[in-house]
Automatic annotation (TrEMBL):
It holds the Pfam family GTP_EFTU. This is Elongation factor G, mitochondrial. Pathway: Protein biosynthesis; polypeptide chain elongation. The gene is MEF1. GO terms for cellular component: mitochondrial matrix. It comes from Corynascus novoguineensis. Keywords: Aspartyl protease, Coiled coil, Elongation factor, GTP-binding, Hydrolase, Mitochondrion, Nucleotide-binding, Protease, Protein biosynthesis, Signal, Transit peptide. Its main location: mitochondrion. PROSITE patterns: ASP_PROTEASE, G_TR_1, G_TR_2, PEPTIDASE_A1. Catalyzes the GTP-dependent ribosomal translocation step during translation elongation. During this step, the ribosome changes from the pre-translocational (PRE) to the post-translocational (POST) state as the newly formed A-site-bound peptidyl-tRNA and P-site-bound deacylated tRNA move to the P and E sites, respectively. Catalyzes the coordinated movement of the two tRNA molecules, the mRNA and conformational changes in the ribosome. HAMAP family: EF_G_EF_2_B (MF_00054_B). Residues 66-408 form the Peptidase A1 domain. Residues 602-875 form the Tr-type G domain.
Length: 1290
């Protein structure tokens, strides 16, 4: 709505389009400038109409007009128009208008339009433009079409009004609902509606939908903006919430009316809830109105809180100007108790009343203080208004298609921008969530008198006190007119309210001129129907005013969206992004390595600790098992140190200095140390998901073992390049070349040693570098000094030449360049060999093998140099996201800071400071305080703190670049969630999560521990996707499931240590399965009568093994003739799924079954979905025994390692439990691989310790399901039936 006639501080749209139309948005930047000529002209004009005026009320800070510079016609004529969300017309004063040529004034200083000077001008409605405002001002003339240009964007054939007769010296740009167009009021017909500015912008492909967002910024700020077709997520704080706009009783959307449901006053002394008989209050969000107008009873309570006094001289409530420094604020609540709340500070509510020296209070409690106007005023009837005094504190999105408002707290003076366009016509407001419980907005609260405990705090924060608190408002109404000092007393002109308010109060809008309430809210006023229908169907006869077909607008929007996508795709290609990359950014990216340490149990930790010795993060090296009572740095959990295993993956970072061509270069390592035990395989899975490369650690004695094969499979699943490190070279029986051969034969990946050892076992000194043919040894404390010699020991020269030739031959098999040189019998240079190794390693064709001893501090530095040389940087790896707007089409992510942010939360941890979320940044950069969007929940979250992790220690940082790994606090999410900055509709595939294989019942010993137990279970499930919990429906026991006995044992122990909860656990339960082995036919009739409609269903068909997949089930229908309707067939399918969920033999899940329904019968009244669902379940259970129902048990691939002298004892143990698959005997130990039933392995660790004097170890990994022995099946079935009988007799 248009404000006061004076224009003291106009908001001028700067004219530069921030985002082009191809991006689906058009933005105008607002700037405020003084226009003293207009003040002077209005001053003289008002002096002729009223008492002498020395200072007049301005429309600057006090009146808040926002003006837009634009161009009209061909060629363009410059002018400045007021922006107004409450009207819909654009109108301009004619250069020949009387008001513009008035003698003694500067005329229309903001610009006029001369039709004769425009070649594209065309009159389309002679004499049809006629608009009048409630203060009596008006503008009349013609409707015309011409070019309308804003910020360099031209809107063709824009319909506008030409004010040939007007007493207003400037025009308006209306962007509200089209029903507010002047032609609609004149013709009383909605058929007269024409495309206004936002609709025309959609029609011409400049934006994608009829919506825009408004950021007015601080009262004292010089800039703000209006963004057509999009939102700017950097301009608001917290969540953007969608609330409904309410229509008139006739269902017409005429204004941006929402439900104000609460108002609170807050100050250092307390808070008050202000009440009104009018709640819920219909308020119009209107950028053209300076002040906010609320019901009188509510406004008076706000006045009393801040000491405002009603002045008859001003016709408004006034307040001391120094109250703008008050620390108090008002909280406006919308759409019910769960809706959004907006805080409005006092510095936004205290407004100047004059353009010069302010008047002062002559009497009363504020005597001698400067007079300002209060931003909350009273109004006597609905609808009420929230103008600029409120809107400056709110970021508002106006969605005219879905009839919704998006609202959030504004981010004052934000210098950043993150524009998100509406993707299509009718698309919801981006990044916004729907306010919960909007149905409660109609609830009428109890009206009570506030205690005004906040009042004193409002006053004291500016140096006042109780003596300055305003008197009770009823007494203030009779205050003397000499309240304000007479020598500066001026004429205060009331605000002009635009036609929209008049229309809302008219009979056509509401059926009553006063006190009416919108139908969507609690309607209590008496409504009288208008004598004539509102907006009658009379035709205006003006074809130019017909509404643009929605199909045209939709197709134009789609075309614009497609163009924007193509432009975005062009800007995001590797070539385009690389061209924009600075040399500093390119160098940073080339020096980043995201690596993991992948190792089987007892192969030895190496990378994290070793790297930190030389970077200063670790001062000593220790074994994981902690024989010295310390334990490894990366194993920070007490249980890890006690048990000598790694349970959780640990993230760390380090700077590694490497000499290249005589220059020391610094590489940045993000390193994740992963567990080696199979029970904690999920930690390896999520590490592999986000790593660019890995170091696969092998034991020099054992070589490739069972867990190594598992790690290899995980690396191949996520396409992770690896280098191999043969550790424990100082052990007896160490043979690195055996390990190299096993990598080639067992892991099926070409490998060759790039080093050979100098000495063996206890005599191990260092290595010979086969690429440069030089010896490398370690010296000094912890081997920190590296000695490089070009002299190779004589006894190793022949072996070195032989292994170097083997390396070149192996490279020739996987690299074309080396192959050509090999065929030409040329000897590659060291640089060519290193380049070939890097290409083949990154291409997943080869793994170079290095060797050393981490515990003895020997030859680890060359391995870290190899990480720099051979493993990829983030730019060398193809990371892919899924474009949800294109049916999850794969899209390559580029690790460049200049691109939109995409990251993956891959690990969660509970921390004393809250939830810690590990994030891999795939694209863009992440800054502290930045807002991100969860692609799964579409919720906006703020990143309050970013840290780099060194095990359980943290280092705060302000920004993380593309390609790196960090951890953040304060983000509620799940493991595997994708985060973006809102500009890309991307999601990322999550990690592979294996099924659990073991369960056990658990309950706290003390009932008082129930809350802590529940909290712990929720945390463990969030952190570990393989840890699952459910409550058994029959026994009502809490069942936890995991990857093995050790896995569950660790969590039970963590309950005791971390939450002080002692638990009772039942016998571990095996996750059995049930299946069938042959076909069985069935013809089952369900017929029950129990008074009233009964149950009737007949199903005919057969069940048989599923030949397509032994792990899944299949349902099929082959019913002909319509004997069973389709809706009942769907119920049959659900019944089959439910029957398979709980098998007939043991109550475990059925797998590998197929059901086919061939015929059936129904009853007219008794058949139902429930009947056919139940009949199918009963038919399946009846046919299951005839189909050879069988119990399946999980077989585990079990690997046992022990000293060789205990081989006989272990053979005796395993013969009782399963079948032996392979045995490998080394120099001092042997490894046995067997397939055993999980049921037989309970308590095996105790037997193994007894048989090997505590020197043996084992690990288990799920292999497959197989039929259980007949005697075991009988025992299990009998036990299950006995349990069922016991429950029936209870």
């Amino acid at each position: 709505m248009r404000g006061h006639t004076a224009v003291a501080l106009s908001a001028v749209l700067a004219g530069a389009v921030h985002a082009s139309a191809g991006n689906g948005v058009v933005q105008w930047d607002i700037q405020r400038t003084q226009r003293q000529q207009e003040f002077q002209r209005l001053n003289r004009r008002l002096r002729r109409r009223a008492d002498p005026v020395q200072e007049i009320i301005t429309n600057e800070k006090a009146r808040g007009g926002y003006f837009a510079t634009c161009r009209l016609g061909t060629p363009g004529q410059d002018m400045t128009l007021q922006l107004d969300t409450g009207s819909s017309d654009i109108w301009v004063p004619n250069s020949a208008a009387r008001v513009c040529a008035e003698v003694g004034t500067e005329g229309c200083v903001l610009g006029t339009f001369n039709p004769a000077d425009s070649s594209s001008f065309e009159v389309v409605g002679k004499g049809q433009f006629d608009i009048e405002y409630v203060d009596g001002s008006f503008s009349k003339g013609d409707y015309f079409t011409d070019v309308f240009e804003i910020g360099g964007v031209s809107v063709q054939n824009m319909t506008m009004g030409l004010g040939t007769q007007t007493d207003i010296a400037y025009g308006l740009v209306g962007v509200g609902y089209a029903v507010n167009e002047a032609i609609v009021g004149k013709t009383q017909s909605l058929d007269s509606v024409y495309p206004n500015l936002p609709v025309n912008m959609v029609d011409q492909g400049l934006i994608n939908t009829v919506a825009y967002s408004l950021w007015l910024n601080d009262l004292d700020a010089s800039s703000g903006n209006i963004l057509f077709g999009g939102i700017d997520t950097a301009k608001y704080e917290g969540e953007l919430t969608r609330i409904d706009i309410y229509p008139t009783q006739q269902g017409i959307y005429a204004a941006f009316m929402v439900a104000l449901t609460s108002l609170e006053a807050h100050s250092p002394s307390g808070e008050d809830t202000l009440t009104s008989q009018e709640f819920p209050i219909p308020v119009v969000l209107d950028s053209g109105t300076t002040l906010s107008y609320l019901p009188t009873d509510l406004a008076m309570q706000a006045w009393r809180e801040v000491g405002a006094i009603y002045s008859p001289e001003v016709g408004a409530a006034v307040i001391p100007c120094d109250m703008q420094n008050s620390k108090g604020y008002f909280s406006f609540g919308f759409a019910g108790p769960q809706g959004p709340r907006i805080r409005v500070r006092m510095d936004e509510l205290v407004l100047d009343v004059t353009s010069g020296q302010p008047p002062r209070f002559a009497t009363g409690p504020h005597r001698g203080r400067d007079v300002c106007q209060f931003g909350i005023q009273n109004f006597t009837s609905a609808p009420y208004l929230l103008g600029d005094s409120f809107l400056r504190s709110a970021y508002v999105v106006y969605d005219l298609v879905n009839n919704q408002i998006g609202i959030a707290a504004t981010d004052f003076n934000s210098t950043e921008s993150n524009i998100v366009p509406f993707p299509s016509m009718s698309a919801p407001i981006p990044s916004a969530t729907v306010a919960a419980g909007q149905s409660e907005a109609t609830r009428v609260p109890e009206v009570t008198e506030p205690a005004y405990v906040a009042s004193q705090g409002f006053m004291e924060s500016v140096g006042g006190g109780e003596e300055n608190v305003a008197p009770n408002m009823p007494a203030a109404w009779g205050i003397n007119q000499m309240l304000i000092t007479p020598f500066v007393r001026g004429l205060f002109v009331k605000m002009r309210v635009i036609r929209t308010v008049a229309a809302l109060n008219s009979s056509c809008a509401l059926g009553s001129r006063q006190g009416a309430r919108y139908a969507g809210l609690a309607y209590r006023a008496t409504v009288t129907s208008p004598s004539t229908p509102c907006y009658s169907a009379r035709l205006s006869g003006l074809r130019h005013f017909s509404r643009t077909p929605s199909s045209r607008a939709s197709s134009a929007a789609e075309a614009a969206l497609q163009q924007a996508k193509e432009l975005a795709a062009a800007n995001m290609t590797p070539e385009a992004a690389a061209a924009r990359m600075s040399p500093e950014e390119a160098k940073r990216l080339a020096r980043v390595r995201n690596i993991g340490i992948a190792v089987r149990v007892k192969s030895g930790r190496v990378g994290g600790t070793r790297a930190h010795i030389d970077s200063g993060k670790t001062t000593a090296i220790h074994e994981v098992r902690g024989r010295d009572g310390v334990g490894a740095k990366m194993d920070s959990m007490e249980l890890e140190r006690e048990r000598g295993i790694t349970i959780q993956s640990a993230a760390t970072f380090a700077d590694w200095k490497k000499v290249e061509d005589g220059v020391e270069e610094t590489y940045h390592f993000n390193l994740i140390d992963t567990p080696g035990h199979i029970d904690f395989t999920i930690e390896v899975e999520r590490a592999m998901r986000v790593l660019d490369g890995a170091v696969m650690v092998l034991c020099a004695v054992s070589g490739v073992q069972s867990q190594t094969i598992t790690v290899d499979r995980q690396m191949k699943r996520y396409n992770v390049p690896r280098i191999s490190f043969v550790n424990k070279m100082d052990r007896m029986g160490a043979n690195p070349f055996k390990a190299v051969e096993m990598i080639n034969s067992k892991l099926k990946i070409p490998a060759a040693a790039v080093q050979i050892p100098i000495g063996s076992e206890k005599e191990f000194e260092g290595v010979v570098d086969l690429i440069h043919m030089r010896a490398i040894r370690n010296d000094g404390q912890r081997g920190i000094n590296v000695k490089v010699s070009n002299t190779i020991p004589e006894n190793l020269k022949e072996l070195a030449e032989q292994k170097r030739q083997e390396l070149i031959e192996k490279l020739a098999d996987v690299d074309d360049e080396i192959a050509e040189m090999f065929l030409e019998e040329k000897t590659p240079t060291p640089e060519q060999i290193k380049a070939a190794i890097r290409r083949a390693t990154i291409g997943l064709k080869f793994t170079p093998v290095l060797m050393g001893s981490a515990l003895a501090d020997k030859s680890v530095q060359p391995m870290l140099d190899a990480v720099c040389d051979y493993l990829p940087n983030p730019g060398n790896v193809d990371n892919v996201a899924l474009d949800r707007s294109k049916k999850e089409e794969p899209v390559k992510l580029l690790p460049y800071n200049s691109l939109p942010f995409v990251g993956l939360a891959f690990k969660l941890e509970e921390n004393p400071y809250g939830q810690l979320t590990y994030i891999r940044v795939y694209q863009g950069s992440l800054k502290k305080g930045q807002y991100l969007f969860n692609a799964r929940t579409d919720k906006k979250v703020r990143i309050p703190r970013i840290v780099r992790m060194h095990s359980n220690e943290m280092e705060d940082v302000n920004e993380i670049g593309a390609g790196e790994i960090c951890a953040v606090f304060g983000v509620e999410c799940a493991s595997g969630d994708t985060f973006t900055d809102g500009r890309l509709p991307y999601g990322m595939s999550s990690m592979y999560v294996p099924d659990s294989v073991m369960s056990l019942s658990i309950k706290p010993k003390r009932s008082s521990d129930a809350d802590a137990f529940s909290k712990a279970m929720n945390r463990f499930m969030r952190e570990d996707p393989t840890f699952r919990l459910h409550v058994d429906e029959e026994s009502e026991e809490t069942i936890i499931s995991g990857m093995g006995e050790l896995h569950l044992d660790i969590y039970v122990e963590r309950l005791r240590r971390e939450y002080k909860v002692d638990c009772e656990t039942g016998k571990p339960r095996v996750a059995y399965r049930e299946t069938i082995s042959k076909r069985a036919d069935f013809d089952f009739l369900l017929k029950r009568q129990s008074g009233g409609p009964g149950d009737y269903a007949r199903v005919v068909g057969y069940i048989e093994p599923n030949t397509d997949s032994a792990d899944s089930n299949k349902f099929e229908t082959r019913v002909v003739g319509g004997n069973i309707p389709d809706k009942y067939l769907a119920a049959c399918g659900k019944g089959f799924e439910e029957a398979c969920g709980k098998g007939p033999l043991l109550g475990h899940r059925v797998i590998g079954a197929s059901m086919v329904i061939t015929d059936g019968a129904t009853h007219v009244t008794d058949s139902s979905d429930y009947a056919f669902n139940l009949a199918t379940q009963m038919a399946f259970r009846k046919a299951f025994p005839e189909a050879g129902g069988t119990v399946l048990e999980p077989l585990m691939k079990t690997t046992i390692t022990a000293p060789a002298e205990f081989q006989g004892n272990i053979l005796m143990l395993m013969n009782k439990r399963g079948s032996i698959v392979d045995t490998e005997v080394g120099a001092d130990e042997f490894t046995m691989i067997a397939e055993c039933s999980l049921n037989s392995m309970f308590g095996f660790s105790t037997h193994l310790r007894a048989a090997t004097q505590g020197k043996g170890e084992f690990s288990m990994e799920f292999s497959h399901y197989a039929a259980a022995p007949p005697h075991l099946q009988k025992e299990l079935v009998a036990k299950y039936e006995k349990e069922l009988d016991a429950k029936r007799t209870k």
